[in-house]
Amino acid sequence: MSKNPMACDLETGICGAVEEEAMEVIDFNKSDISLNLYYVTDPICSHCWALEPVLRRFVSQYGHYFNFHTIMGGLLEKWEDFSDSANGISKPADVADHWREVGEHSRMPIDGSLWLNNPIQSSFPPSIVFKVIQQRDDSLATEFLRRAREAVFAFNQNIGDPVVLLDIVNKLNLDGKSILKDAQQEIGKNLLNEDFHLAASLGVRGFPSIIIVNKDNKGVKVVGARPLEYYINGLKQALNQDKLQPKTLPSLSELLKKEQLLFSKELEIMYSIKQTDIHSFIKKELSSDSYEEKEILGEAYYLSAY
Fold this sequence. Notes:
Layout: E1 8-9, E2 14-15, E3 23-27, E4 36-41, H1 46-62, E5 67-72, H2 95-106, H3 114-117, H4 124-136, H5 138-154, H6 162-170, H7 176-183, H8 186-201, E6 209-213, E7 218-223, H9 228-239, H10 252-259, E8 261-263, H11 264-271, H12 278-285, E9 291-296, E10 299-304
Parallel strand pairs: 4-5
Antiparallel strand pairs: 1-2, 3-7, 4-6, 6-7, 8-10, 9-10
């Protein structure tokens, strides 16, 4: 794939130097036996982090309509030959202010100061680790991606550092040394390149991109971090249906036990509640010994006690 700049547009929610419509109908020349949703992303894509609350609710309520596939897009290979002069980004330090803007705009906490004192040199290492884990267990790969994003955005850790990656993988009860060893082999690079080729075939040029492809080889592409209605409407178009049957949302106790850590904005989106009502909602839904409340960068987050 062509290089993607680190700057992301706050209005469109797109990471990448690209001008695209928010939604468009597209055709694909490949055979699919069922509806497939391709989520093209990157571990250090700030607007992908901002999308997490909406994407979680969308999948929770409508995931029974499609097969979900997470595809790595390759946002930053290396800084040596990287330049985005149009957005004033040519070195790691240029990213810090942009990340903080995305965090403030989305209310998904982003520190960003690591770009000043411990910059990520490439998003490929965590992407390859994701691919290696995905070959073994897709659900664990999804959990790895979430933990990696928590680490880099909220807790300001360099997820390009093998020590940080090792710790994240080990905490998933996986053999971190084995996973990272495989990630350094040719097979890891090949798995990542397969994703790049797939993303290119889907016409992806910016992150996040969600492409829903139906059995008639037609699809809908939604680019950027958009409100929930965009994805629901895209699914309707792909299915050629006017009405969908959403699943009942999980209880907060079920959700927190599954996710382990959730930010206030994620609960607000999931349960359609106001920020000012979050504390009363938590106390109503959870027993006091089942969670721990903390705060980071001015945002509350909740940890499961189980």
